[in-house]
Amino acid sequence: MTFLDSIKGRYGANFSGELTALIKRFAPTASRFLEWGSGESTKVLCAIAATRRDPMVLSIDHEDSYQRGVSASLPRYPFLHFRRLDLQGPSESQDDQYPSYSSYPFLIGAEFDVALIDGRRRGECALTAAQIVTEDGVVLVHDWRRSRYRNMRALFDTLFEGEQFLVLRPWAAIRQRRSAPVKEGRKVIVIPARGERAKGELKITLPFAEAYARRIGADCAVVGDNSPLPPQRLKAAALDVAKAYDRALVIDADVLIRPGSPDVFAIVPEDALGAFPEGRFFSRDDYYSQTNELYSLDGRLPSRDYFNSGVMVFANRNLKLLEALRDEVVWGLPQFEQGFLNAKRVALGIPLFPLTADFNFMPDGEMFPQDWRYSFFLHHAGVGKKDYRYSELWQDVSGDRQTFALRKFLAADVRAGLMQQAAEQITGRHVHILDPTDFHYRTGFGRPIYDPAGAIIAYFSPHPTVDEALSAMWGPHMTLDAGLWRGRYLKASGENLIYHGAKLDVVKSQGNEVVLSRRRWPRDGIFEFRLAERSENVEFRIFRDAESAEFSCLRLERVSE
Fold it and tell me: 225: closest CA among 202, 256, 254?
């Protein structure tokens, strides 16, 4: 039973039916939906959006655990966005520009055909909704008979009073896009990248960056491949390109931009540097303390203004920050160029405009869910899994699987698979990509290793006395949706692994329930299994042969029947 199943009917048997009927009656062509208050309504809006062209559903809530329960209950629709926002927002000073629960859709410049008000701060939400719905758009209010909601009608014409929902349309005089639109100019997206890892990541992320650039009227350029600059200064390679434009978005190679994301240039004021202030969300006391000390700032950089440099929006006037990165003394802590850029922004007096977390979403699993639906710009930044099984792995240093040395395991070494998985999921494919560190191995039967090039593979060394009754590898005890699934263990070359003499199976509930019975390795390397319902603790096992074998990932895809 999903979380949504457990709360079904909480608002009456006709809740979903009435909501669906009203949208079909008053917004028959609507494709962009906003709701304040995640829940059963999210499922309804997604069901309607799935039938529309270029849809979007934005679901806002203030309760983290509750919204995570809702998100876990729904398929990963490529058009679905979740946002968890504070009801009030920060209030360090009158100049604080970070949005709140109610103001967020307006401040990101969004526009919707339907806005559903079914959460907290309903009067504030009504004010925002009145300004962001389209000309023919409607606003629906749940539990509208409560007297405290009567004053919001001053912003709207009433179209219909239903049993549970009130249907409103804002006055034309109130509806507006932005009070102070940002001046248009020449725009460019610049991606500094160098090295094999960055090139591999660009194969995944660059098509999305280029598509985003086309949609917002910007150019796109990759720089740094032949730059003599050291890694701590590589972002300065963006300078020569950026100087030819009025605005520049500088992003890391591991940033994946979701289709339909808002124009970030229209959000960031021209006088400011736009960046995500990660110090407001993650413990960065050591980072900003080091930065204050290394650059003699005397505490002028507060933790709340410590930003992540993986996504930065520049105006031409602020490119002096990149000039300084190129020319001045850089202490490579913390995090390569990030400490320097934070310190130099303060020294140069450049205002910081705080981008919301979804424009630099780093899914650590604790503060931010491991779920790309919470993002516009998904930034893996060495994270992506809540837990990792290994702190170090053996590396083949001879190239013949004969000589090995211990090497520290880095999360960045497996993020390409996570990025590829996200890239396919956000375009509507039901794909999971599991790397060798996701599995458990029986001692002496197999292990994950680094190959000479630094790629991680699952390696089953020759073993003449192997017991075929014992699983050599198992895991990762994952959750999969119902349907027909196709699996392939892939070699580093991308070819299917054909492991002659070995066997495989698929089980759940710690091996007590068989999903796919143990069988000889498929001749083409492809196996299929069916799940009648959404299932937890699914694991994949290999019963090895005496011969050696290796693979780089297990690819799972739900296929149409």
Answer: 202
